[in-house]
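Quick question: what would this complex look like in 3D?
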Amino acid sequence: MSAAAQGTSKAAHGDVAPKKKKGPGALATAYLVIYNVVMTAGWLVIAVGLVRAYVARGSYHGLYYSIEKPLKFFQTGALLEILHCAVGIVPSSVVLTGFQVLSRVFLTWAVTHSVREVQSEDSVLLFVTAWTVTEIIRYSFYTFSLLNHLPYLIKWARYTFFILLYPMGVTGELLTIYAALPYVQKTGLYSVTLPNKYNFSFDYYTFLILIMISYIPRKSIGRLHFPLQKSAIRKTGYTG
Amino acid sequence: VVEVLDAKTREQLCFLDKVEPHSTIGDIKSLFYKLYPRWYPARQSLTLDPKGKFLRDEEILQSLPVGTTATMYFKDLGPQLGWTTVFFAENIGPLLIYLLFYFRVPYIYSDRCAFTSSPHKVVTMACVCHTFHYLKRLIETIFVHRFSHGSMPLRTIVKNCLYYWGFSAWLAYYINHPLYTPPSYGEVQVHYAMVIFAICEMGNFSIHLTYLPAHALIRFPVPSKNPFTWLFFFVSCPNHTYEVGTWVSFSIMTQCLPVAVFTVLGFIQMTVWAKGKHRAYVREFKDYPAVRVAIIPLIL
């Protein structure tokens, strides 16, 4: 779900980690703080939107529609994080961050937005809730880290809530893709068939199934990321 | 006296006394291999420093900065395969896989198409070209190329084979498909593409034949009387240039998007290789022609 802490360095194995290996400059830090604050605020807006809609309707069905626009805006905005890694102001891997953000953006646009029929599914609420709580914690974690004043509570929340939120998000995502399958097959959405001038074909239905299968290796690795990071931090005593 | 320690655990793996000062690293590796038969010399990495660069087989013990007891660190590079084996595996796959699709072996396309052939001439021409390309590469691997390093790790080979074999299956699937659509400009397109294909293949072969000993050259390659070598006026790696040309012409010939994708990816990879080679030439030879670029004349 989330890459290594932005703006701070990974704990070095075996020796006491320095505060920052090669931190971003002052301008970059200011930009990153603003970015992370804006993102935290954005996801808080989504959280509030969900709660208000729930209270207003009295049920949790179809809450997607009340936060559709901010969800799309802020989740798509996360693409900037790939740029941050590429430019070097964040010490994470471009490939890793790219995979994570693109996976989210794919689910937001290519599945939920594109297949209208799944938008009222409860699985959508499941992953949206998981994403919202995760992102609020994650972006505030980064904000405080950048300001070198990380409250233990946030760090604790990040690593602990992850245990619940990660499987919750994965389940919601998988169920949503699964729900989209029959509609994709029926309408031939995003699919190209033979014969055609460029001798190429693409079956979005099969592609979605492959994506679902890929969750097994991808998410198992992701599932291990935090416990590994947590024990590495515990070993070195680096508190960020 | 040579002492070999494990690079990770620092435990002593062996103690070789009676090693002559003029022995090479290769000799030491052979001695080590006798004690540890599962680590044949090709998969041994010996260094003077646990994190340092590995010592080459030709280096002589007495020329190394060591005292009376030389301490070396050993790392297992994993199973290795010779480069000839690797290239052979990488190229035999596409050759055979494409033919499976051309002859429409059962279970690829629908049952009633099994073992049928396409009515389009271009499909047969494409098969001839593709097969010729890989046969040429296999022949070059066996008779022409001389490789510098001894071997390559198993994981790289698996990755490379998956890439080449996978792509050839993907493009062969569409070209030999019962619903294949021949190129928009018909015979003209196919024939022009074939001519360019032939020129590029001949060019590539010329360059390989005359200029490819893999170890360091005494002099950088220069154009000769053979017109195909005149590309050397403009580029450092005309073999790569010709190879890109081969695949561009194949894309045009088949008008197949997967072929174009493969061409683009190949172009990117070859540009990386060509730029590396170009930089090495420029560094090594002070009088390297300034007009030359890496792979695309006057551009890249």
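Answer marked as accepted. The radius of gyration of chain A is 19 Å.
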